[in-house]
Each structure stands twice: as structure tokens, then as C-alpha cells.
Amino acid sequence: MRRKERERTDRAFMEQVLKDADTLWLSLNTEGAPYVIPVNHALHEGVLYIHCANEGLKLDLIRRDPRVGFAAATDVRIIRERSTTAYRSVCGSGTAVIVEDEAEKQTALVAIRDQYQAICDLPAPASRLPQIGIVRIVIESLTGKEKTLPA
Questions:
Q1: Using one digit for the tens of pLDDT, what is the confidence trace for 24-46?
Q2: In the chain, what percentage of residues exceed pLDDT 90?
Q3: For the segment 115-146, what is each residue's pLDDT rounded down to a tens digit?
């Protein structure tokens, strides 16, 4: 990292950014170029969960190559008069696993509901679980960065 004074190495900081961020940007491998998509997410017991359809390009790419990258940022504030930006951010990589286990799907859905303070009935009916896609990302690396400015 070029700006070492902005680097944050404490796991608590990085986990808090993941919990505070509304969007996780997920990068998947294609045959020619990265494919990046914003997703809903939740950090639960050290792994990331994302909710998705149970079919589509995202899952096709994960099946082909489960290595992923991701990034999230929060407290982003552009200060135009100083031509700078304040932020807290995290970038990472990991391995994506398509969750098939119904109990783990329920756990992930509760974590995602709590992340977004959603008002929905959980657990989901067992009849709906086959239609719900959940991906678990086992985090392998994380880097954090923070730039704060006076208010």
C-alpha cells in the first residue's frame, strides 16, 4: 500500500466496514475480463454471505472459478474544496461456495436480514429454499484503508 499512514490492519476495523457498508462489490473471473457486480451481503462468524437468484451468470462464474475479490466502503465524503475524499474501505479476496444446506441458508438469510434491518418473516418456508441462492465467501485476505478529515 502506497499510503501506509492510511492503512488499517486491525481485523475489527475491517469487519466493521463490512458491517457498515450497504453494498459489497464482488469481482468474479471470466475468460477474458473481471466481472464486477454490487451485491447485498452480511458478515457472519467470519464469512461473507450474499443473496442471489439460484441461477444466472454469477453462479455460473463461481462454478467455473470460485476465486473472488470484493470491496466495500463506507463514510465516503467528497470534499470538493480540497479535491479529496474521506472514507473507510476494505478490499479482500476469498473462495466462493454455493450453499446447498438448508440450515446454512436460513442462517445466512437471518444475517442478511439483520444487516439491512429488513422486515421479513424468517425462517423462510422450506418450500422456498430451493429458489433462494446463497453464496458463502470464505475470506482469505483483507486490507483496510481509512482517510479521515476534520468535519
A1: 999 999 988 999 999 999 999 99
A2: 66
A3: 998 888 777 778 888 889 999 999 999 999 88
Q: Cis link prior to 38 (omega < 30° from 0)?
A: no
Are the C-beta atoms of residues 86 and 149 closer than 8 Å to each other? yes
Q: Give tens-digit pLDDT for 84-105.
A: 888 899 999 999 999 999 999 9
Checking phi first, is residue 83 left (phi over 0); if not, alpha (psi -120 to 50) or beta? left
**Residue 85 and residue 79 in contact, taking contact as beta carbons nearer than 8 Å:** yes
Q: Which residues contact 137 (CB under 8 A, 6 or more apart)?
A: 47, 48, 49, 50, 68, 70, 94, 95, 96, 97
Cβ-contact 129, 105 below 8 angstroms: yes
**Nearest-angstrom CA–CA distance, 81 and 64:** 46
Q: Residues, the chain, total?
A: 151
Predicted TM-score (pTM) of the model is 0.90
HEC-encoded secondary structure of 9-28 = CCHHHHHHHHHHCCCEEEEE
* Residue 6 · residue 88 · CB < 8 Å: no
CA distance 101 to 127: 14
